[in-house]
Every structure is written in C-alpha cells, then in structure tokens.
Design a protein that fits this description.
Elements lengths: L1 H39 L7 H9 L6 H35 L11 H16 L8 H18 L7 H23 L3 H11 L8 H28 L3 H6 L4 H23 L5 H13 L4 H22 L10 H20 L5
Length: 345
C-alpha cells in the first residue's frame, strides 16, 4: 500500500509543479505585455515605434520620447516594484499571523508612515511627496519594530502580533488626525499622499529605495521554508529542525523592508497586500514558497493595471492607483470569498 500511495502521489506532484510553473511563466509574460502597453498608452498618444526608440535610442529633443522616458517609465518601475513588494509582504504577513485578512495596515506599518509624513509636513514644511519618502520609510520601520517589541520579538505568537499591530495602528492614526487638525496645508498634502499613487515619481527615488526592495525579497526567500514548516505547527516545525524564532525574525525583517519601502514610494495603497496573497494561493496551492514566487508578478500586474486604468480618459486621466486598487480589489475579493471562502493557511 505505501508503494501504491507513492506511485499515485508522484504524478500529482508533477502535475502541481507543471501547473505552478505555467502560472509563473504566464504571469511574467502578462507583466511584460502590460509594461509595454503602459509605456504606450496615456493622455498623450505615442506609437510603438516611438516607444521602441525611446528605450533603445533615446532622443531628448523628442517630446514623445521625453514623456515615455521621464514620466511613464518611472511610473512603470514604481508601480511594478510597489506591487511586487506589497504582494510578497502580504503573503508573508498572512503566513506569519495565520490570518487570511492580514495586510501591512494591520501591523501598524501604514499608520507609522502616515504619522511620520504628517510630522514631516508640519515640522519641516515639506510639501513635495519626493521630500518625505525617507520620513515615510522611517515611520514604517519604527512602527514595525515597535510592534515586534511589544508582541514579544521573535517569539511572538500570531495573536499577540495582531493585537500589538492593531493597538499601534489605532494609536498612530489618532495622533495623525490630531496633528492634521492643526494645519489645513498639512491636511491638503496628506490627503493627496494617502490616496496612493505614482504621480511625479522620480527614477532617483526608485534607485535610492531599490536596495531595500532587494534585501526584503532576499529575506522573504530565506524565510519561506521556515514559515512553510511553521504552518504545520510549532512542535512539528521544531521536530523538523527549524529554528522558529529565527524564521519569524527573518520574515518580520522582510515584511518591514518590503512594506516600508512600498509605503514610502507610493503611499499606503490598500487591498494589494490583502488580495494578491489570495490569488497566489489559489494558483499555487498549499505551501508558501510558490505563493511567494507568484505573489511578486501578480502584485506587479495588479498595481501596473490599476495605474494604467487610472490614466485612461474614462477616469479623467488622473485617478490614483490606490483608488483603483480599491475599486478593482473590493469586488474581486468579495467574489473570491463567496466562491471559495477564505482559504485556510
């Protein structure tokens, strides 16, 4: 019987691997296609030939190529990086907390970034979004570290982590609102930032934050096998030789780096870190490693599509990506819950 079971399991494993590889290949191909369309479409029409020339032989005297290289390319890179980071960090957060409704906002990361940005506007008078990127990153990192300390560090249970995150998030939200009441100008600037978008994003800003994205992705890959074992239970993970505290610490580091960088770059974009892990698990099946691998292109596709849709004439050409993700993600999440239910982690 054991030999028969093994003989039946082998084809199922091969079929699952083939399906996951197909999803990964298809999503990467869709991402490349969407990126090309994103460079071409917008309020100012350009041809495919101009897109190709702008990327291969840039002419700074061409108005169309200036639009492509200095406006659409930074938006494309910013949306792709932010979406991938939110997708990976959302998958990690839901795996770490074993809560299918967890996202960066639940761990206080968005609240910390919002408080830091508000303080930056009020105390330093900075109104350019590019000027408070580092404040947002610092606030997000500080909030995540504070949640980790309050919940017990690397030995935190999922419930303690969620409770600490909810408490810090509520505290920071109250402080942010109190500060905003003191200044109408700060309220106006904050209101634009909190919508989440890629207007005016610069290649220099992306380059400065890129190391945080890379380090976060590497930490996520390193934490994946440990979290996979933890899904079997604390005792089972230890019996397999997994150092559970180190696995949680590594996952927490990845979440801080990825979520903090994403919020710093684009503002607190809702739904991406919540819905992408559900899509990745639906495509990958059980286990975190393939879900993490799929959540990166899935997240990039979602944010790139949301940014592209917001730039279409149908929406006035200036709707923020954060608003579009809420418009697209809300109905999609409701449909998934009604069709399949929140899949157990």
């Amino acid at each position: 019987m054991p030999d028969t079971a093994l003989a039946l399991a082998a084809p199922r494993r091969r079929a699952a691997l083939s399906s996951r590889a197909l999803w990964l290949t298809g999503s990467l191909a869709a991402l490349i296609l969407l990126a090309a369309v994103s460079l071409r479409l917008g309020l100012r029409p350009v041809s495919w030939a101009e897109v190709w020339q702008a990327m291969s032989a840039y002419d700074p005297a061409s108005a169309e190529q200036i639009v492509i290289r200095q406006m659409r390319l930074p938006r494309l890179l910013g949306a792709g990086l932010t979406g991938a980071a939110l997708g990976i960090s959302g998958t990690l957060i839901q795996g770490l907390t074993r809560n299918p409704l967890a996202d960066p906002g639940l761990l206080g990361i968005n609240g910390g970034a919002a408080l830091a940005v508000t303080g930056c506007i009020l105390l330093l008078g900075i109104t350019d979004p590019a000027g408070f990127v580092w404040a947002a990153l610092g606030g997000a990192l500080a909030a995540a570290l504070l949640v980790a300390v309050l919940s017990g560090g690397s030995l935190a249970s999922p419930l303690r982590l969620l409770l600490a995150g909810a408490a810090i998030s509520s505290l920071f939200l109250a402080l942010t609102r109190a500060l905003l009441l003191a200044s109408q100008q700060a309220l106006d600037v904050y209101r634009f930032w909190v919508l989440g978008g890629f207007d005016g994003i610069q290649l220099e800003t992306i380059a400065a934050l890129a190391p945080f994205f890379v380090l976060g992705a590497l930490a996520a890959l390193a934490a994946a096998s440990g979290l996979d074992a933890l899904l079997l239970g604390e005792d089972s993970a230890r019996s397999l030789g997994v150092r559970t505290g180190a696995a949680r610490l590594l996952a927490g580091t990845a979440i801080v780096l990825l979520s903090g960088s994403a919020v710093a770059l684009a503002g607190p974009i809702a739904f991406a870190g919540l819905i992408v892990p559900h899509l990745a698990r639906w495509a990958a099946g059980p286990g975190l490693r393939w879900s993490l691998a799929l959540s990166a292109p899935f997240g990039a596709i979602l944010l790139l599509g949301a940014d592209l849709a917001g730039r279409l004439p149908l929406f006035g050409g200036s709707l923020q990506a954060g608003v579009m993700t809420a418009l697209l993600g809300g109905p999609a999440l409701i449909w998934m819950v009604r069709r399949n239910g929140a899949r157990s982690l």
